[in-house]
Amino acid sequence: MIIAIDGPAGAGKSTVAKLVGSELGLDLLDTGAMYRVFALAASRAGISENDQSRINSLLQETSIGFSESQPRRAILNGTDVADEIRSLEISQLASQLSAISEVRRAMVKAQQQIIATGDWVLEGRDVTTVVAPNADLKIFLTASIEERARRRWVEMIDRGESVRLQAVVKEVVERDHRDYTRDDSPLMLAEDAVIIETFDVSPAQVAGKVVALARR
Ligand code: DC
After folding, report:
1. Which of 15, 34, 95 to mutate to test the pocket of ligand 1 (most atoms within 8 A of CB)?
2. β-strands 74-76, 137-142: how paired?
3. CA 57, CA 43: separation in Å to the nearest integer?
4. Which of 4, 58, 62, 151 has its CA 20 to 30 A from that of 192?
5. pTM for this one?
6. What rounded mean pLDDT belongs to the chain?
């Protein structure tokens, strides 16, 4: 079984996907983490989103993966980077780099290889439309921009980061705009996706709805 969940930043995709995965015994693929790991590699190498030839070389040289152990943690060239990829700077750079077709092609190929065997719940921006267009169940999670930014801010404060709510709102607005309007596979609603509004509903309730739909 493949369950694909798309939606904008902070819609609750990761939390819901984790709960659905553990309830139904599906492995979890966080596709956004892969763009983030690549962004971290670019940031460390001092490569900007405009440097196409260095980005192409970096795609060849970079190994992006996940730990064998659960919950899976993001790995860059053999090293755990799961915490480092969550900063505002890496969020922005991941969004910028994800607009580049060569980057998308490499990530989609790797993601399709990962889900070729086994049962998966995957989440991202293009998993219902490009990565797994034949998924058994497609979900589009959404909430207002204020609510999504507030969630991201709470996550960052809980991790001990000192960041202003307004800075996170600005970051989410910019990222939404870029993710929805890029030319290559923008975030969009698949015709056969079920839309679930996550405002004022607990992740467990949203996951319960997804599980019920999957069982049906
Ligand atoms: O889901 P996330 O916030 O971790 O994703 C980070 C960025 O990666 C997001 O702003 C856009 C990009 N992304 C993408 O283009 N396609 C995906 N399937 C997942 C993420």
Report:
1. 95
2. unpaired
3. 14
4. 151
5. 0.95
6. 96
Which of 95-104, 152-161, 206-215 has the least mean pLDDT? 152-161
Distance 39 CA to ligand 1 centre (A): 11
- On whether the CB atoms of residues 156 and 166 are closer than 8 A, the answer is no
**What domains are defined for the chain?**
2-215 (3.40.50.300)
Residue nearest to atom 14 of ligand 1 (CA): 125
Q: Could you give the CA distance from residue 92 to residue 168 in angstroms, rounded to a whole number?
A: 11
Residues with CB under 6 A from ligand 1: 9, 31-32, 35-36, 91, 94-95, 98, 124-127, 175, 179
* Alpha carbons 170 and 89: distance in angstroms, whole number: 12
Cα–ligand 1 centroid distance for 31 (angstroms): 7
State yes or no: pLDDT of 14 exceeds 90. Answer: yes
139-158 pLDDT tens trace: 999 999 999 999 999 999 99
Alpha-carbon distance of 160 to 141, in angstroms, equals 27
185 half-sphere exposure, CB direction, 13 A CA radius: 22
Ligand 1 atom nearest residue 178's Cα: 10
Query: How high is the pLDDT of residue 215?
Result: 95
